[in-house]
Amino acid sequence: MKQYETVIGLEVHVELATRTKIFCGCSTAFGGEPNTHTCPVCAGLPGSLPVLNKKVVEFALAAGLAAHCEIHRLTKFDRKNYFYPDNPQNYQISQLYVPICHDGWLEIETGAGKKKIRIHEMHMEEDAGKLIHDEWEDCSLVDYNRSGVPLIEIVSEPDMRSAEEVIAYLEKLRYTLQYLGVSDCKLQEGSMRADVNLSVREAGSRELGTRTEMKNLNSFKAISRAIEGERRRQIELLEAEKPVQQETRRWDDNKEYSYAMRSKEDAKDYRYFPDPDLPPVEISEDWIRDIRSRQPELRDEKMPRYQAEYRLSAYEAGILTDSRHLAGLFEETAKACKSPKKAANWFLGEVLRLQKEDGLDPEQVCFLPEYLAALIQSLDDGKISAQNAKLVFEKVFRENIEPLAYIEEHGLKIVEDSGALEAAVREALAANPGPFSELKGGKEKVYGFFVGQVMQRMKGKANPAGVRQMLEKIVKES
């Protein structure tokens, strides 16, 4: 039986996190009533002229430098002509002949080790509008709010061989762009969209097969399923000695099936020509040097540093660096409390628990790091119990309250009155004669039960170690 190899390249469209659109001053905010973030420029009205947003160029340069790309020192815009209801000008301003970045790479981790995925180019362009299909009225409506939102399109070489490699590449790309702050890369909001170019060939062959392009992929799971589905479809065609058509296909994730949309266009079909309204952009060495000097520490650099500097495991470092924002909060907390390991435990436990419980994006977590550091120090000093520390942190997390004042105000400090503690211990022992007998008989595990009972009676305002000592004292005397 023939063995086949899958060959995959990606075209990834990423919405840039600028406040305004690429060629006008309209808002790029997600949502909004239809056609309220528009003006004559992004609505394609005759006589309107585009003006390039400088921030778009800087974001594209930052992404290109992080992906080890070469930079064209003189970059130009072109018109890509196509007629579609969501494209108000009947052309898209893009870059074909001289894209801003080219010939880069990103390194991914695979089951077989590290692998470099080459990047053919990155280019700037404007997004189109959005069609809204109203099945009830049997019509389609157009929302131009997204029209003119700045994009970079990142085109890889066909270097990937499996869905696993594709997801690893997309994850690496997403982390990189999020850390740079150039995009939030939210697939569910369409700010990161991937088109998959896939072909199959007999194993060992150097000749590429006929490729198809799959669109409508808005999650990593959908991308994985689409790749496996299209791979099987093409192999079945080849096994039946039928040709694979070069075409664009749309993936239906509910039905787990793709269907043909149109034959795959080549560049000549779009009739590209230089945009006459936009002059070339000169990228100086000083500009590149300035962008490079502002590049942040990326996740690939941060993870090994956390392991070496903070003595964290690879797993812990991986979780803590999943978000640049949370990693920043963690580092500030670790510095303030002078105990990275304890800070890490709080982030891996309570911070992530509350973030998930409240349904927050990492960037929405906004407590002051010095507040958590003060709470950790209070716990270390024996001023508050672990149980009450967690309750106080919930208030810090959700309301950003000052923890020490809250502890004082609500009487949550550990009670240092030995008489009150002894009374609570004797009450717990008297209320549980069976376990008390087991404890006197030498059953050590019962101590945990009684510590819990005493902590309840003290409303968490006791030191568990002190409770244990008092229990041991009274049991010994019994």
TrEMBL record:
Protein keywords: ATP-binding, Ligase, Nucleotide-binding, Protein biosynthesis, Transferase
Origin superkingdom: Bacteria
Entry's Gene Ontology molecular function annotations: asparaginyl-tRNA synthase (glutamine-hydrolyzing) activity; ATP binding; glutaminyl-tRNA synthase (glutamine-hydrolyzing) activity; transferase activity
Catalysed reaction equations from the record: L-glutamyl-tRNA(Gln) + L-glutamine + ATP + H2O = L-glutaminyl-tRNA(Gln) + L-glutamate + ADP + phosphate + H(+); L-aspartyl-tRNA(Asn) + L-glutamine + ATP + H2O = L-asparaginyl-tRNA(Asn) + L-glutamate + ADP + phosphate + 2 H(+)
Signal peptide bounds: none
Record EC number: 6.3.5.-
Gene3D superfamilies listed in its UniProt record: 1.10.10.410, GatB domain, N-terminal subdomain
GO terms classed as biological process: glutaminyl-tRNAGln biosynthesis via transamidation; translation
Residue ranges of domain Asn/Gln amidotransferase in the record: 328-475
InterPro entries per UniProt: Asn/Gln-tRNA_amidoTrfase_suB/E, Asn/Gln-tRNA_Trfase_suB/E_cat, Asn/Gln_amidotransferase, Asn/Gln_tRNA_amidoTrase-B-like, GatB, GatB_C_1, GatB_Yqey_C_2, Gln-tRNA_amidoTrfase_suB_CS
Enzyme class at the top of the EC tree: ligase
Oligomeric and partner information: Heterotrimer of A, B and C subunits.
Family of the protein in this entry: Belongs to the GatB/GatE family. GatB subfamily.
Annotated protein name in UniProt: Aspartyl/glutamyl-tRNA(Asn/Gln) amidotransferase subunit B
Native species: Cuneatibacter caecimuris
Gene coding for it: gatB
